[in-house]
Write a structure and sequence with these properties.
Length: 210
């Protein structure tokens, strides 16, 4: 494994080991609040540390699930009480249009509130579904419960995967080079995309003021 990949793996491992349950909780809270972070990485390494006997399996699982459920309340209440104008004001930076919002709301209204539970294990969609849930004035406690219940099995699965990885850590570590490169490339593309969107929006406002 390349030296920089090994350093990255060791850094994440040290970060999870140092922050423990708090680190897993904060990472998932941030993801639930729509911060672009891959919280599953913390679960994988958390599962490995469970294998080493340094943490409790259910401690990691509950920290991740509770963190995501509580973090999701931020965009939920923003959309519930701020409404569509607030969402569109900030959504323009991530290419969120009125037509896309209408499609998500139509899909949510068609299948009902249970989709909050059903989609929590699906990347990207588990965040987007928060939007129509808030706009439809879904009850806050029900939203929190559906989010927690739907996300808990996924957190348990990823943590268990990290635990099983610990049994074959030496055979798996070479593949981290490909994983790390993919994550870094995706992060770079996302940052460039946000930068371009910011300047496009700023330019459109400047032209409108003329």
């Amino acid at each position: 494994m390349a030296e920089w990949i090994e350093l990255l793996v060791n850094f994440i491992m040290h970060l999870v080991a140092t922050l423990g349950y708090t680190g897993v909780f904060v990472a998932h809270f941030a993801e639930g609040a729509w911060v672009p972070i891959t919280s599953e990485v913390f679960l994988l390494f958390g599962g490995f540390l469970v294998f080493e006997g340094r943490f409790s399996f259910w401690g990691i699982v509950l920290a991740g699930a509770l963190g995501f459920a509580l973090g999701s309340l931020i965009p939920f209440f923003m959309s519930r009480y701020g409404g569509l104008p607030l969402i569109m004001h900030y959504g323009k930076y991530v290419h969120l249009t009125h037509s896309r919002v209408r499609k998500v709301r139509r899909w949510f209204n068609q299948y009902g509130e249970w989709v909050v539970f059903a989609t929590r294990a699906l990347p990207v969609l588990r965040n987007v579904i928060t939007l129509p849930a808030g706009l439809s004035k879904m009850h806050g406690f029900k939203f929190f419960f559906y989010t927690l219940a739907g996300f808990l099995p996924w957190v348990a699965f990823v943590t268990f995967l990290g635990f099983k990885m610990g049994q074959k850590w030496e055979q798996i570590t070479p593949y981290f080079e490909y994983l790390a490169r993919g994550v870094l490339i995706a992060a770079a593309v996302f940052v460039i995309y946000l930068f371009v969107r910011f300047w496009q929006v700023r330019a459109s406002y400047s032209e409108g003021d003329r």
